[in-house]
Design goal:
The protein has 107 residues and is an alpha+beta fold. Helix content is 49%, strand content 21%.
Length: 107
């Protein structure tokens, strides 16, 4: 299992990018289901940085639920504000595409 740990500088940079993001995944009263895990996995794979909102009547506290979800998804919790958590998981394929695009733009 790959243990990913963000530095405070990384976290600050990701918070800046997350500020403008809309919530992508909603955790309802059913809690964390298989379908929700799949949706979150898809979102992390395609976006890397994802906002998750926990419903008012979700059993667990948002911070604990975010930590549990991040552990399951092999992601990092960037921040938790109220009932909204921001998760990050690096996708090496997206990183390669970004680098290729930057090289093209530099030419």
């Amino acid at each position: 299992l790959l243990e990913v740990s963000l530095t405070s500088r990384d976290r600050a940079e990701l918070r800046k990018h997350a500020h403008h993001l809309q919530v992508t995944v909603h955790v309802g009263h059913q809690g964390i289901t298989g379908t929700l895990r799949q949706s979150l996995d898809d979102a992390l794979r395609t976006r890397e940085l994802v906002k998750v909102q926990f419903s008012r009547n979700a059993d667990a506290k948002a911070k604990q639920a975010a930590n549990d979800l991040a552990r399951e998804m092999n992601a990092d919790v960037v921040q938790v504000i109220g009932r909204t958590a921001t998760l990050f998981r690096l996708n090496p394929e997206l990183e390669q595409k970004r680098r290729a695009r930057e090289k093209e733009e530099a030419r």
